[in-house]
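Run log, item B.
One chain of 99 residues. Sequence copied directly from the ordering sheet:
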Amino acid sequence: DKVKLFQVPTLQELQDKNPDASFYYLSSKVKTPYFSMKFKPGDFLVFGKETKGLPAELLKDNPDTAITIPMSGEVRSINLSTSVGIVLYEAIRQNYEFK
C-alpha cells in the first residue's frame, strides 16, 4: 500500500512523460559502476530481461547513463531482483535521510 504502481507501454512514452528525469540503463556489458552516479528523486532505473538484458543500441545511445554492478572472478552477473535491490537501495541512500 506504500508503492504506487503504474504501467507505461513503451520506454519512449515514459521518457516523453518525464522529460526532466534522468534514465539509468543497467547492464553487465558496460564498465561504469552504479555507485559513481549521483541519483536524484524522480530518476528512473531501467533494467532489461534477466535472459537478454537491454538492447545494445540503447546502451550505445546512452553511454553516460549506462551503468553496471561490478563483478569479480567468474561471476558474470547476478539475478535481476537482486540487481534491482542493490541499485535502488543506493539511489534511496543518496536521497533520503535515515533515522
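Observations after the first pass:
- The chain has three helices and three strands.
- Helices lie at 11-17, 56-61, 80-95.
Flagged for discussion on Thursday.
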